[in-house]
Amino acid sequence: MHLTLFFITFYYITIMLLQWPQDWKRSVFIPIPKKGNAKECSNYHTIALISHASKVMLKILQARLQQYVNCELPDVQVGFRKGREEPEIKLPTPIGSSKEQESSRKTSASLTTPKPLTMWITTNWKILKEIGIPDHLTCLLRNLYAGQEATVRTGHGTTDWFQIGKGVRQGCILPPCLFNLYAEYIIRNARLDEAQGGIKIARRNINNLRYKNDPTLMAESEEELKSFLMKVKEESEKVGLKLNIQKTKSMASGPITSWQIDGETMETVADFIFLGSKITADGDCSHEIKSHLLLGRKAITNLDSILKSRDIALPTKVRLVKARVFPVVMYGCESWIMKKAEC
């Protein structure tokens, strides 16, 4: 009880004084192999270990920020938001392709990927003010990132403490919230929400869909799509976010030419994987459905010994299948366009 009162008082003083204890600004970085050559630093995830007392304070700060974030973000952004699901953003993508096929009009989509958060956030605090975040919360955030220190821990030992010049900590509670605010600022300044272009779905023009750091731009023509992309690129660079052209892809329901952006060629594809689902230019979901059925068959094969066991009750087997097989088969089914033969 006394410890709880101590921390409540301590958190209250931190908020009132807008100052963080130096220990709460310290992080231990753990590099975790991701893929490819282990000798390349880019092939690692760097996770920050943060003190538990600091995380409680960050959770309080996140809750205060979230009430402002929810008021500012549109419904096309579903990443890092409570009550929002991936199918909400996946659904318009195949529907858009299918509708355009039926009407013989061309639709184009571009899946864009920014550089990782740690490379681009230079903590432009003016953005938070323009978005509508109160000054005392902005000041609390600024003081958190000022004077950050870190050490890197590997199997060979731990480095000395060093200062962090810019960037946020992967593994911290706040970066997803900050990223959404930065992304919203970019889209607002690009004036995409005011643009008349896009794909018309349910009597509404939609030209962008956003899930975390995977925004998708959509248009009815190649010229319109390129215009949207260049606007987003220009506004991104103004706040220190560089578009990753190598991971940006374009797709169209008709012929489309390759683009050159800053000397790099943007890849044109006939399909791409978006949030775990395969999106095709013609809106055909047959391949996606078959793929999920095969995954479901593999999942049930893995349970073969359990399902054939006489020592396990039938209700338990049913619950196990519902928990292990159904989610694999039905993932993303809200966005599937079913043909009569598949029903």
Description:
42% of the residues lie in helices and 19% in strands. With 343 residues, the chain is an alpha+beta fold. The chain has 2 domains: 2-280, no CATH class; 286-342, no CATH class. It has a 6-stranded mixed β-sheet with strand order 9-10-3-11-13-12, with helices on one face. Strands 1, 2, 4, 5 and 6 form a 5-stranded mixed β-sheet that branches. A two-stranded antiparallel sheet has the order 7-8.
Q: What secondary-structure arrangement, pairings included, does this model have?
A:
Blueprint lengths: L1 H16 L8 E8 L10 E6 L2 H21 L13 H5 L1 H11 L5 E4 L5 H4 L4 H7 L3 H11 L3 E6 L2 E2 L3 E2 L11 H16 L8 E3 L2 E3 L1 E4 L2 E6 L2 H17 L10 E4 L6 E3 L2 E5 L2 E4 L2 E4 L5 H17 L1 H4 L6 H11 L1 H5 L13
Parallel strand pairs: 1-4, 11-13
Antiparallel strand pairs: 1-2, 3-10, 3-11, 4-5, 4-6, 7-8, 9-10, 12-13, 14-15
Helix pairs in contact: 2-8, 6-8, 8-9
Mean pLDDT equals 79
Oligomeric grouping of the chains? single chain
Question: Kindly, what is the distance between the CA atoms of the first and last residues, rounded to a whole number of angstroms?
Answer: 60 Å
Physical arrangement of strands within the biggest beta sheet: 9-10-3-11-13-12
Helical amount? 40-55%
